[in-house]
Each structure stands twice: as C-alpha cells, then as structure tokens.
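During the second year of the project, the team shifted from modelling isolated chains to modelling whole assemblies. The rationale, set out in the original proposal, was that interfaces cannot be judged from single-chain predictions alone. As a representative example for this report, we include one of the complexes processed in the last quarter. Its constituent sequences, exactly as entered into the pipeline, are reproduced here:
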Amino acid sequence: MSAKHGAAPAERRDGREGAARKPAIPKAAGSKSKAAASGPTRRMGPIVPASSVSGNTLIMVIAIMTYLAALTVGAADLVRRTADDWARDVVRETTIQIRPAEGRDMDASVARAAEIGRSAAGVVDVRPYSKQETARLLEPWLGTGLSFDDLPIPRLVVLRLSGETPFDAVALKEKLEREVPGATLDDHRRFLDRLVAMARTIVWLGVGVLALMLTATVLSVVFATRGAMAGNRDIVQVLHFVGARDGYIAGQFQRRFLRLGLKGGLAGGIAAFLTFMVAGFTAEQGVGSAAVDQMDALFGRFQVGASAYAGVVAIVLLIAALTSITSRVTVYRTLRAMN
Amino acid sequence: MLRFENVGLRYGLGPEVLRDLTFAIEPNSFQFLTGPSGAGKTSLLRLMFLALKPTRGLVRVFGRDILTLPQRELPGLRRRIGVVFQDFRLLDHMTTYENVALPLRVAGRDESSYRAEVVELLGWVGLGERLDALPLVLSGGEKQRAAIARALVAQPEMLLADEPTGNVDPQLARRILRLFVELHKSGTSVVIATHDIALMDLYDAKRLVLHEGRLHVYE
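Output from the structure prediction step:
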C-alpha cells in the first residue's frame, strides 16, 4: 500500500500531547543510581490475591482433619503405651491362684504356695494376698459392704520376677499342682499376649485411619487448588504472557496454600492439645472412684505422653507440607493442561 | 525476528481460521495488522505471542521453531515480546505500579532495582500520578496506557498490540500511536492489530491485511 499519509502526522498532530513531551523512551531507568535515589522499597502485594482462594473453607477442612488425625495419634499412643505396660507386667509378675474347696485349709495352702514360689528361681518377691485384700480387689465389681465369707473366693499369691534370672514357669506349675491342691500358676502370658496383639492391631488401625485422613486432606487441597486456579485463570494467563515460568506461578499458589495449611494445621493441633489436656485433667480428678480405678486397671492412666504431643506437632507440619506440595503439583498439572 | 511459512491454524476439528500465512516481522520494523472483524487478527497475534501453536506450517520466533521448542524455553522467548491486550488484562488486585512492574517481578528482579525504571515509564505514559491506583478506578485510556507500559517495561524486542486504540477517543488514540512510534524509533519491532483505518492513515507503515484467513502484505 503506497497511499500513505506520510510519517509525520502522528508527530504533527500530537505535538502538544503527553508522549511528545518526552520523545525518548526511558531506557536508562534501570541504572543503580536512579534506583537508589528513588526512595525506600515499595511493599508489593501478593500476585495471587488471598480473597481469590477459598481460604476459610479450606482452613476449616484442614483444621478438622488435623484435629481428627491428632486424636488418632493420641489414642494410638495411649494404646501403644498401655500395651507396652502390659507386656512389661507379663515379664515382671505372675500369680498363683488357689481355688477353694470343701475342707481345704486355704491359709495353709497359701503359705505353702508362697514357700514354693519363694524357692523358685527368678522370683525376687512373693506377696500372698490375705482374704481381706482379695475381697478388696473385688470391690470394684461387687461393691462394698458385702460379706465374702460365704463366697468361694480364690486366693492369690503374686510372684514378682527379677527379669534377669530365667523363670521356669512349667516347673513351678508342675510342683504347685503336685504339692498344693487346687493351686494353679496363672499363666496370664497368653491372655496378655492377646491383649497386646489387640492393642497393636488398634495402633495399626490408627495408622490406617491416619493415612485415610491425610489422603482426604490431600484431595481437599487438590480440589481447592483447582478451584483457585480456575478462579485465577486470568492471572495465570497474564503471568504466562509476561514470561513467568511454571515454577514461579506454582510458587505463588504454593505459598498461599502453605499459609492456609499452617493456619488450619495449627488450629486443629491446638484443639487436639486442649482436648488431651482436658481429658487428662478430667481423668486425674476422677482418681479414687471405682469407675476410674477400673479403667486405670484395664487401660492404664489416661495421660497422653510426650510422644503423642510430638506426634501432633509432626501431624501439623506434615499436613502443612502436604498442603503446600499438593497445591504445587496440582498447579503444575493444571498449567500443563492449559499449555 | 519472527517468520511464518505456510502456517495454518484451526481450533479443534473446525475449519481453518488462518490459511497459508507466509510473512516475516523484521527487526526494528513497524506494521499494522488489519482486516475485518473475525478475520483472524487475534488468532494470528496469539500465534505470534506463543499462546497458540500452529496446526501446520513453520513458525520461527527469534530463530526458534516453536513446534519443537521445549515448554521450559517458552518464558524466555515471551520475555522478549511485549503484548498489549484489547481488554488490557490488568490484574485488578494490583496497583498500576505493581501491574506495570509485573514482568520485571516475575523475571526475579529485586524491587529496588527497577523501581525508578517503572516510575519513569509510568510518568512517560502520563500515569505518574496514578501509581497507587487500582485498575478499577482507572479510566479506559489510563488502563490502556498502563497495559502499554507493562508491555514496554522489560524493553521487549517486539511489541504486539491488539486493538490498542479500540476503547479510547481519537485524541487518545493518536497519543497512543505516538507512543508506539517512539518505541519503534528506539529499535523495537511493533505490530499493531487494528481495524481503525483512520489510525493507520496517521503513520506510514507496512500493512498486513487478513481476509478470510489469508494474509496480504502491503509494503
């Protein structure tokens, strides 16, 4: 096309306008001296606006998941420690039980059984339970004020084992059966082994539940990230056009989600801490009552250990890290699809 | 700088919207890209700023074939191209200053190293008093100039503008054209997509005319 109106018109007609006031495009503006002279650094706002990510909802989901995961960790820790206690008790103690029978001198039988127990290798202490002490053991089940004279209550002799010298349970059992009628060595190893196995199963179930919760958290973050990406599609496109690398864009979203993950994780973790403390305090207050004593006897004292608190901290950090990493991976995948 | 050879583009299974395009954008050149609405100007611009890949033909940008270019190298090429969108594409949650500084920020530069540069450029486009204004309170002309400043701030080797005067009055249109002419004089290749004949008549430059998906070049 040759019918042009010359190169000058723009200059001629716009001679009074803004661009013409300064004909040269600023090129030297990047010089250090000018930059230094331009005053303090401006605080730059976030590239991904906080309001564009459904933050509150995600924080709540993460907080709930963290709370449940932390409770699972606490419960698993409680069961694990109780199982360890049971296992230790099995090694430390065993009991001789003497069943009552018509015409049997129970006190003499208890004395003889204690004597045999004392002579057995590996036994460091023998404690025969009197009739009154045995009755007291039954109080949580039968209540107080009952006369146990007419009840055929077995008598107990508790043997404390050294744990270092080998203890021959079979030999002791045979000797008791031979010499003390009605006496049996209460080999509660099998019973306790089952309880310990059950407790360990519960711990593994807890691990499984924890894994499911973490998976649910990851999926929630994936959905939230996809939503945020869809809501910020314009921003992502502009970032692409101005030359941002995928890693830079992913970093912007990752930072936002890490913050959400930390907020939600901390909220859930603190709630779990408070729950542990309140439960421990409540259990402490109930010490002495039959119900609490019974629970203590079966499950041990309700007191979450330091390992559980450490586990909660680990859960908080893990969930924050998972949130951050998941959002990054999701952004990368979405960007690949967009490209 | 940018070379198209027998380039065709179709969206999905639809008809070809661009057919057999063969042309080049030379260094330090100035051209208008024009044609009726729906002729494919925006699609061609999208090919030029690497937002699309052709369905056939060869597109070389700064000597690189974009069909074989690894994804990770695209940002490097995009930084050498400034784009002014018809709808500005300013980020509403960022101030004018932050919007204009965005290309430098994503390039990893420290804010203190480019502050003077951005402030000076904003002054040059007449937005020196609007540094902290959000796009929502800017007029159409101010948004347009902010978008132009953002495209220029990284001193690109090629500037692509899609209907840069489509939303402004004739006086401001002339002023914006003046900005592009100055930019061209400073060594940047400029492509302005427009169907504003009056604007094109203001400056003597090559015209790339798209009609029914085909390109005709008028020197």
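Strands of chain A lie at 93-98, 123-128, 155-161, 183-186. Residues 51-87+192-338 of chain A form one domain.
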